[in-house]
Write a structure and sequence with these properties.
The chain is 45% helix and 13% strand. It is α/β, with parallel strands linked by helices. Keywords: Hydrolase.
């Protein structure tokens, strides 16, 4: 499971094309988002979604679904990301582990769907707009903030991937019947906004990895603090290339998972049968 902005990509996705098209600097856009959120006591994610529509309407920028998807082609990715998924999938197959990839992001689904890696994910959980009869974005349809991200981990855990299916999500499911155990999960994020997801995964036996841009000592310090606070298990530069630190960590977790599953099967086999 991955965050997107500053985890798979070095910047917030809006900063590659959308904000420049408004004729302003990213710092100004985010400063206005913060100011509005504070003055109106708004959720920060709802605020940026509102601000995107408001600024686009003021400047005449098109905001159809296809326009947002088109922005995805300009999103830059960290080194090695494009080849990462197939390589990790193959490593999993070699170790009898089926790998599935998910996005859990506060960014926009539409923009992520336009990126070169969109097809690598079993499911993309992120914010999205609803559109009027003319196909123009008018209102947030889904908002994924830093704490609501955790519900999607439970959806993945239970195999209830449809966002509108709350009945099965909230129904009691014994651990042995859940689709993906927490112990088989890896969460990769970049900072404090990922803490709820990281903590949920780690306290239930999974592994969390905090990544950081190589050129950011501040981000590295944040990642190190996540280790000190027992919120993440590993930190690594956000380089997804083969034989880099992140690649070695994830492959080691796959090795560990394979060994643990084999051991659990052996232990179960040795248990006396009930008479």
């Amino acid at each position: 499971m991955y965050d997107f902005d500053k985890t798979l990509s070095p910047k917030d996705m809006q900063e590659f094309s959308f904000i420049p098209s408004l004729g302003i600097e990213p710092a100004q856009f985010w400063s206005e988002v913060t100011a509005l959120a504070e003055s109106q006591k708004m959720d920060g994610i709802l605020t940026y979604m509102y601000m995107m529509l408001n600024k686009a309407n003021l400047t005449g920028q098109p905001i159809r679904r296809s326009d947002f998807v088109a922005l995805g082609k300009n999103v830059k990715l960290y080194p090695g990301v494009e080849k990462w998924f197939r390589r990790i999938n193959e490593y999993g197959r070699q170790h009898n582990i089926e790998i599935e990839h998910f996005i859990i992001s506060s960014g926009l689904t539409e923009i992520i769907e336009g990126t070169t890696i969109a097809g690598e994910f079993k499911k993309i959980y992120a914010c999205k707009y609803c559109y009027n009869a003319s196909g123009v974005a008018v209102w947030p349809a889904t908002v994924v903030n830093y704490t609501t991200k955790t519900q999607y981990i439970f959806r993945i855990n239970k195999g209830v991937l449809d966002e509108n299916n709350d009945n099965d999500l909230n129904r009691y499911t014994p651990d042995q019947l859940r689709d993906i155990p927490f112990t088989n999960m890896i969460y990769i994020g970049d900072g404090l906004t990922d803490v709820p997801c990281m903590k949920l995964v780690t306290v239930n036996g999974g592994k969390s990895i905090a990544v950081y841009g190589k050129d950011s000592e501040k981000k590295k310090a944040t990642a190190q603090q996540l280790i000190a606070d027992h919120r993440a298990d590993f930190i690594a530069p956000a380089d997804y290339s083969e034989n880099r630190e992140l690649d070695k960590i994830v492959k080691s977790i796959i090795d560990y998972t394979e060994a643990r599953i084999q051991m659990e099967r052996l232990m179960k086999k040795e248990q006396p049968k009930e008479k």
